[in-house]
Structures are given as C-alpha cells and as structure tokens.
C-alpha cells in the first residue's frame, strides 16, 4: 500500500509550468491568503512573475504531490548576463559579487507548502531536489525579514545573509540570502 505521507517529487520546465497553471495558483492563493489584497501579491501579478522567470534559460520547477494533490512547489531560474536582479540591492558587498555572467547564479524565486502539510520536511525535499544538480556556482533568494518560519528555515539550512533588496518599487524590502555551491553538502542533503 502506498504511504500517503510520502511526497512524490516531479521536475518541470517552462512548458510544464504552463500545464500546471491551475494547481500552482490554487496552492499560491491558499499559502498567501493573507496578502492577496496587496496589489503586488494578487494571483495575476504572481502569475506574471512566473511567466517572466519561465522565459529565462535554466528555469526549473519542482512540484510535490501526495496522491493527486499538489501540496507544495519551488522554482527558480539562472540569472542572465547583466541581470536586473541586483538593481534594488542595498548592502555592503564587493560590487563584483553583483555582476552576472549568465552562468553564475541560480535565483530561487518561490518555495511554498500548503499550511496543512508543514513541518514534515516537505519544503526541505523540494529545496534539495531543485538545487541538487544545478551547474551554477551559487544560489540566491529573497525572504521577508518578518517571515520568521521561512527565514529560520533557510538560515538553519546553511543560507547566509547577503544584504537587502527591493525588487520592484511596490514590492516589500526583502532580505537577500546567498549560498555557495563550492561545498554543496552544507546546504543540500545529498
Ligand atoms: C517556509 C515553508 C516553505 C516551510 O515549509 P515546511 O514544509 O514546513 O518546512 P520543512 O518541514 O521542510 O522544514 C522545516 C524546518 O524549517 C524550520 N521551520 C519551519 N516552520 C517553522 C516555523 N513555523 N517556525 C520556526 N521554524 C520553522 C524548522 O527548522 C523546521 O525543521 P523542523 O521541523 O525539523 O524543526 C512554509 O512555512 C511555507 O510555505 N511558508 C509560506 C511561504 C513562504 O514564506 N515561503 C518562503 C518564501 S521566501
């Protein structure tokens, strides 16, 4: 008999993302229910951002399923040469670290698990599946400083504080985190 609490992981490219539009938005609207009144967080704006990420090479989506129910997912893309990603960055780092050559950095742009299925290690499984075979040197992501569960999670997984970043004028100011892949074993359970 199938163990119903065992998460099935699936990998998708951009086409796969479009095929999963409805369930991806269903999970998003449940996870971000409290923020949907903010124009930046409406499902329409969220989907526009996903479409923008999906245009870039190196785009990847990993979904987690229990039987036929999508319970969480994570996705990201490789920052292109002279990416606008770092435009709203605030922090005291070597400017060379903000230069993108189209191969260097994988940006994790989403990681979410439905509220009813948290604290079971599912986010960790999604995270590891997304990052395990990446060819870039490093990964970066943004987290709201008051998002204690996510921030605690990332720092406990080995991500490092890098600075602050406001990606769009009407977006929140996020904390920018970074992880180097030189020794991937500190960040991913291989
Ligand atoms: C952040 C999130 C993806 C974690 O999902 P999850 O499946 O519960 O995470 P996991 O079970 O894999 O890992 C949890 C680890 O993170 C930490 N963690 C998770 N939830 C936490 C909480 N509420 N408070 C403190 N630490 C927490 C713990 O270290 C935990 O390990 P433990 O359960 O062994 O103690 C989930 O809370 C979520 O979807 N939040 C809303 C979306 C979001 O904020 N995403 C991140 C955007 S940057």
Automatic annotation (TrEMBL):
PROSITE patterns assigned: GNAT
Domain N-acetyltransferase positions: 2-180
Keywords: Transferase
Coiled-coil segments: none
Source domain of life: Bacteria
Single GO term (MF): acyltransferase activity, transferring groups other than amino-acyl groups
Pfam families xrefs: Acetyltransf_1
Name of the featured protein: GCN5 family acetyltransferase
Organism (species): Amycolatopsis orientalis (Nocardia orientalis)
Lineage: Bacteria, Bacillati, Actinomycetota, Actinomycetes, Pseudonocardiales
């Amino acid at each position: 008999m199938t163990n119903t609490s065992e998460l099935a992981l699936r990998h998708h490219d951009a086409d796969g993302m479009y095929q999963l539009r409805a369930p991806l938005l269903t999970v998003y609207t449940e996870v971000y229910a409290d923020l949907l009144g903010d124009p930046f967080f409406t499902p329409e704006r969220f989907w526009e951002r996903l479409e923008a990420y999906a245009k870039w090479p190196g785009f990847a989506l990993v979904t987690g399923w229990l039987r036929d129910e999508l319970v969480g997912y994570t996705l990201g893309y490789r920052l292109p040469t002279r990416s606008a990603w770092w435009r709203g960055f605030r922090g005291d780092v070597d400017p060379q670290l903000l230069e993108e050559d189209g191969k260097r950095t994988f940006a994790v742009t989403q990681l979410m698990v439905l509220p009813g299925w948290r604290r079971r290690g599912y986010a960790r499984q999604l995270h590891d599946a997304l990052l395990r075979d990446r060819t870039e040197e490093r990964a970066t992501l943004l987290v709201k400083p008051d998002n204690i569960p996510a921030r605690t999670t990332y720092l406990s997984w080995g991500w490092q504080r890098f600075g602050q970043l406001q990606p769009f004028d009407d977006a929140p100011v996020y904390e920018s985190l970074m992880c180097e892949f030189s020794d991937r074993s500190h960040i991913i359970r291989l």
